[in-house]
Protein 1
Amino acid sequence: MEERTPRRPRIADVAREAGVSKTAVSFAFNSPDRLAPETASRIRDVADSLGYRPHPVARMLTQRQTHTIGVLTPQALSVIFSNPFFGAFSEGVALGAEQAGYALHFISPLHGSLASAMGRATVDGVVAIGLSASHPEVEQIRAAGVPLVMVDSSALPDQPGVEINDEGGARAAADHLLGLGHRDLLVVGVEPPAPEIESEPDGTTARRMRGYVAALAARGLELPDNAVVVAPASIEGGIAAMRRAWEDGLRPTGVLAMSDAMAIGVLRAARELGLRVPEDISVVGFDDIDISQHTNPPLTTVHQPIRQKGESAVRVLLSVVERRDLPPEQLRLETRLIIRGSTGPAPRRRQEVDRARS
Amino acid sequence: MEERTPRRPRIADVAREAGVSKTAVSFAFNSPDRLAPETASRIRDVADSLGYRPHPVARMLTQRQTHTIGVLTPQALSVIFSNPFFGAFSEGVALGAEQAGYALHFISPLHGSLASAMGRATVDGVVAIGLSASHPEVEQIRAAGVPLVMVDSSALPDQPGVEINDEGGARAAADHLLGLGHRDLLVVGVEPPAPEIESEPDGTTARRMRGYVAALAARGLELPDNAVVVAPASIEGGIAAMRRAWEDGLRPTGVLAMSDAMAIGVLRAARELGLRVPEDISVVGFDDIDISQHTNPPLTTVHQPIRQKGESAVRVLLSVVERRDLPPEQLRLETRLIIRGSTGPAPRRRQEVDRARS
DNA sequence: CCGGTTTGCTAAACCGGTTTTGTAATCACC
DNA sequence: GGTGATTACAAAACCGGTTTAGCAAACCGG
């Protein structure tokens, strides 16, 4: 009979083999200075020869920490990962986590339930992105005693959070187009992921919209209701939104897209409609994702420090995780308009645009 | 004195409060049919009122499974996440994991050491991407008894793995250009991330190169050494590679890029050099990432089923995780050439290209 | 050489659950 | 009405570590 199921060696196996107690083995790994040097090294040698590695789960249990932070999103991960914005954000989170020696665990609705996914997650803290403060899970997470930092959603006063100046950025974007003489604007907004969810009055979308409206109001202008069209926040969504607006008879000379992905879709749809960018139509995005500088033409957009946002979120989170008595930090990062090639002076006459259509 | 540090309720608290044993509480959650219905519901009521949730780590320890799969990359996550290829792959992995009720844990070198990161990770299995079979960690992971599926690296015969037909795809790409009359080709290859790492003879890069060479050989042609230029696998890398080749006096009419990101960089560099695509120069990518169909012009490229690759990897992994006696599965997915707008007939005379340069 | 400290290690308790084993009470059956 | 099976729960062992409390021997100053 050969050895069957070569069980993973436990601390007791090492102890027996080395002729010491479990305690000694534990010390050899975690506080070698509490053992005689030769004992410690002998124990480690035995452990090596047995291929022993402390079981991470058991370790988590006794130490009461997992050295893992969770990234929470209300949407399925399979929807999220190919979103360049989320990728850049994750990059920032990963950087912050790596520097602090934490691993990353992604938490998304399991079998449709964020709550049960949260219940299974073994994390020391959570960075939530795209989660509104009124989301029911937020209270549950807090009740579970897990530190939470909310990103991009005006947090409760006693909660840590990281956000950006959406309104200011949007206002700058609209102002830029207005300054170039554009008066017929189209706003391409983000459709809430689930139709039954009423869009949050304090969500990113609402804040950006307020910025657009404020810029117009400052010049005594208004945004007609039909000049706002919504679609999913993707390239395809941008294409669809632009086409729909055109079919509805709208002939904007400037487009304000609430995300770069949508703006890229608008760029493409415009090209297919025979419009030249920026001669016939100007397009402004929002976010400044990596590819935006490489589109043709390069995209004028509102830059937000996406990576920094992720990194800051982790920093703020870990300060709470490691010192729970610290006051929760609230960060607000700046945005700024980056002018590239997709915007230019408004065409002189409406006819120019109409002609381009044929 | 108010209640200080409202400790998280444990199973013993619920048991005491409900006047039953720990066992009964555990049963109430995990196998309610073993209790009288009214007992079970009473226990659950008490648990609810106390806000009790079973501690996930303790649960992992006794059940000997974490319901989590790890995604392992030899590169830092902060480098990886903004890579659209990795995003799409992760999307597939996430889809497979979500369907099976598993969470996702990303494992990357912690303080530079993959081994220690792996030691801390609490996962039931690992999907490794971009890890060569000869990597020292591979043996360590197997020794730890953690099931491992390797993606994109010719796995050992007794190991599960998922790969794609790199060589065939590359051959089709080169064949396409040759069929269009191109004879002056430039291959834009991937630079190994760390200079000291010798490029794997069986890595993705090598396999694709073999495909290019095979297509040439089939027509009795050879690839001059100086027609291969390497750079990091990014848009910026593609730009740099193309510029460098041009400065070296190369005047290719067709470019074979080993990744779409690099191809997009080549597109941009070509435009800046005053070359029209595809009239003056044709560009073929590899991977078919999402944006490639939206570039200007849309990119001709070798499609590989990235998401499916991730999903398959999880499926293969979980079949081993859940039934260890199963034979390890090895998958090889197909690639196919997608012809879009970035390739066209080779220009008639070399002069045309040279003239375009001015 | 004696009381107190330090050194080097062990035994036992603990982290928070699950699972196995055990047992009293009830039920079914002949 | 005695016997064997079932039901409903409890006691104890266990998962694999860490940490606290404790103890014997060595050391140390006076």
Protein 2
Amino acid sequence: MKEEQTICYSCANENCFIKKHLHLAEMESFISKKQNVVCKKSDQFITEGAPMQGLYFICKGKVKTVKTGIHGREQIVRLTKNGDIIGFRGFGTGKKYLIGAYALEDTVLCNFSNETMLEILQHVHEFTYDLMLFYADELNKSENNIRKIAHMNVRERVVDLLLYIHRKFGQVDGLIDIDLSRKEIADFAGTTEEQAIRVLSNLKKEALIKSVGKRIGILNVSELRSEIMEHKYF
DNA sequence: GCATTAATTGGTC
DNA sequence: GACCAATTAATGC
């Protein structure tokens, strides 16, 4: 799964947390220690409960992170793309990954070991400060998700997911630019595949969305948004 | 082209 | 709203 290093300085990924701090001279010695990992679609590169082996930064591609519940049912916790960080929740206490991670398409990852991360945190204060803000932001998002799952019905949760991936991944040729199976849509919305499919068919009948194969396109963003307005989408 | 997997729909509890 | 079954569509080999 390993390949030669991508060079951070010439990396095209402007969203990257590392890239944003490259102007700091102290970063130079650390970025040479990263390991690149290349995953094919549906490869699992983090196992829930496995010992931490550093943080992953997505260089290119898309990844889902999941928590497994009883009866093997999975809850998708996050959907991530290039520039996002994976594995950070288990960081600090440092022992185990708290989530599993799968590539949703062919993906290139940059892996920084626990030791390297700790060194960066101790020596590059601007980086540490920004990461702190990042954690605060993520905590807020998690709490919003708790509220959503608690207060929204199935239809609202599916609509919320559609608007979310629409905003995060954008649409190409009128279709949202991410491949999710119906099962994965259900795993994110906290319901079953059949329920998710029913909601999608209804939305299609109402001409709010369209679908080509597994890809979904949103036809009426404002109408969908108004459906979940009362849940304070923004 | 055949076989396995995913998507869809209808029905029951 | 979950679970099961049957049918159909899609995809891998």
